[in-house]
Specification:
The complex is a heterodimer of chains A (about 150) and B (about 375).
Chain A lengths: L2 E3 L16 E5 L3 H15 L2 E5 L2 H11 L3 E5 L7 H10 L8 E5 L4 H9 L4 E4 L4 H19 L1
Parallel strand pairs in A: 2-3, 2-4, 4-5, 5-6
Antiparallel strand pairs in A: 1-6
Helix pairs in contact in A: 1-5, 2-3
Chain B lengths: L2 H38 L4 H19 L2 H97 L8 H31 L8 E4 H16 L5 E6 L5 E4 L1 H18 L5 E9 L2 E8 L30 H11 L3 E7 L2 E9 L20
Parallel strand pairs in B: 2-4
Antiparallel strand pairs in B: 1-3, 4-5, 5-7, 6-7
Helix pairs in contact in B: 1-2, 1-3, 2-3, 3-4, 4-7, 5-6, 6-7
Classes of the chains: A alpha/beta (about 150), B alpha+beta (about 375).
């Protein structure tokens, strides 16, 4: 599993109120949706809500109230980075932790993710069986630095 | 006829005639100025002289008795010669200088145009190189995204099937699944290696250099590679390392180098063999060697073993063909060098690094390593 840990920056801004139960997965590729949500549901026992587009995610985020958002970067229409900016404007998701899931991991891209208020970047392709553990690690790190 | 000469021929005789008729020095000066103007306009002194002589003769014939005319004629000619001679010299000087300048210019122009041609072809070459570089980066970018996306589903699905999520498979099904998964892993490695190489070559790979203890670094690397070597029936051992020796490296990159060398060594070793890692002081630095008991590197392959995609066709064992060139680039980036010695039954790949001898490294204990790379 490959991740980019975002040490320090921005972590203090979030206050983790709950344990990780509800995950909003924003991903336009239906096959990746299947694989990812299956892994999260089967191995992590999380409640996963899948959105196929930024618009859908923005619409349902305030209602689903996720503990964590897994956000694809390259999507038709609004991309993941703009989606994050919009989610930050919505009171319900203003401080919801976000992890980017992306196939675009060129240095220039990574520099852009870094500027945004995200916990980490998980690089595609990833091992779904290890995804839960990775997310838990990030979640615990996030908790530790938030308190 | 030269228009300046024609004009001189028309005007000069009357001016000279005026002098001969008692016009005084002012008339002579006017004649001289006409002559000088003609020279300046490109008429030669000889041509002006001829006009003068003819005008003088005709003026004298017209106006005076021969006996009286002699001193006047002499005076007019002397004055003319005195006035005109330096000017003619100057003109010649100019002509010579002009000729010399022209030659010089032509030489310069030739050299300049040659230089310009060189410059243009160098520029074309550079543009072509840039174009190829852009093409390569675009290509890698496409690989990076367009291949990763379908690979995420394929690899993810195989990974979940292997975890038993789809239920138990019969032995044949399991073998097929294993083959598919193994090769999907290989493809993932290739895509990652390509990106790494592109990052190294474009200078965008970050190196977080810090002094680290060499022995513990090697122990960690061996530990991390056990999982890979175990199933191949290969033992990995650290035979020796100088106590307290430190190197200034990026630990993650160093792990990448060691993982690569260890996985190669395990891959090419016969089952049941041991791969030996050994560190020692060598010359003024430290040498780390990884020795396997494999068949050795074929002779014809020695020259290009560290080149991209240089994997010996006969010994295709599932690598990306980029591992050793990435290893070389990383080690060199950390001021080291790589090499190997090979004979059948004993091959050592090694790298040399300068020893870090400073006692206390103060300050930043936890540098922000984002992005942490792989």
């Amino acid at each position: 599993m490959e991740t980019h840990g975002l040490a320090g920056e921005g972590l203090g801004k979030h206050v983790a109120r709950r344990t990780l139960k509800r995950i909003l997965l924003v991903e336009d590729d239906p096959d990746i949706q299947t694989v990812t949500s299956m892994a999260l549901g089967s191995f992590g026992g999380y409640t996963v809500h899948v959105c196929g587009s930024a618009e859908e995610a923005i619409e349902s985020a305030a209602e689903f109230l996720p503990d964590l958002i897994l956000l694809d970067v390259m999507m038709p229409g609004m991309d993941g980075m703009d989606t994050l900016r919009v989610l930050r404007e919505i009171p319900e998701t203003a401080s919801t932790p976000v992890i980017f899931l992306t196939a675009r991991v060129q240095p220039a891209d990574v520099a852009k993710y870094k500027e945004l208020d995200s916990l980490a970047v998980i690089r595609k392709p990833f091992e779904p069986t290890a995804l839960v553990e990775t997310i838990q690690d990030i979640w615990i790190r996030y908790h530790d630095s938030a308190h | 006829m030269n228009p300046a000469l024609e004009e001189l021929s028309n005007q000069y005789p009357s001016a000279l005639r005026e002098y001969c008729n008692g016009g005084g020095e002012a008339a002579l000066l006017r004649a001289y100025q006409l002559g000088r103007g003609a020279v300046a306009a490109g008429v030669s002194a000889l041509e002006v002289g001829t006009v003068h002589q003819e005008a003088l003769v005709s003026a004298l014939v017209e106006t005076l008795a021969l006996a009286e005319s002699a001193p006047i004629a002499r005076r007019a000619t002397e004055f003319f010669a005195e006035c005109l001679a330096p000017f003619e010299l100057t003109r010649r000087g100019f002509q010579e200088a002009h000729a010399a300048l022209r030659d010089l210019n032509q030489g310069l122009e030739r050299r300049l145009s040659a230089a310009l041609q060189d410059f243009e072809s160098a520029q074309d070459e550079l543009l072509e190189q840039k174009r190829m570089e852009t093409l390569k980066n675009d290509f890698i970018s496409v690989i990076s995204h367009e291949v990763r996306t379908p690979l995420t589903s394929i690899h993810g699905a195989l990974n979940l099937l292997k975890s038993g999520l789809g239920g138990e498979l019969n032995p044949q099904g399991q073998r097929l699944l294993d083959a598919a998964y193994r090769n999907s892993q290989r493809l993932v490695r290739l895509v990652n290696d390509l990106l790494d190489l592109q990052r190294i070559e474009s200078g965008t790979m970050t190196f977080n250099l810090r002094p680290v203890d060499l022995r513990s670094l090697l122990e960690q690397a061996i530990e991390a590679s056990q999982a890979h070597a175990g199933p191949l029936g290969i033992k990995l051992v650290l035979q020796g390392a100088p106590t307290g020796a430190r190197v200034r490296v990026d630990s993650d990159r160093m792990m990448q180098v060691m993982t690569n060398l260890l996985s190669n060594a395990a891959k090419f070793s016969p089952r049941g063999e041991t791969v030996v890692v050994e560190a020692s002081r060598h010359n003024s630095g430290l040498r780390v060697g990884v020795t396997d008991r494999g068949p050795g590197v074929p002779e014809e392959f020695h020259e290009r073993i560290f080149q991209k995609f240089a994997q010996a066709a006969s010994s295709d064992r599932g690598g990306s063909g980029l591992g050793l060139s990435i290893t070389k680039a990383i080690v060199e980036h950390m001021s080291g060098r790589v090499g190997f010695q090979s004979e059948p039954g004993r091959t050592t790949f090694y790298f040399d690094l300068p020893e870090w001898r400073r006692t206390v490294s103060r300050g930043k204990a936890s540098e922000n390593t984002w992005p942490a790379g792989r």
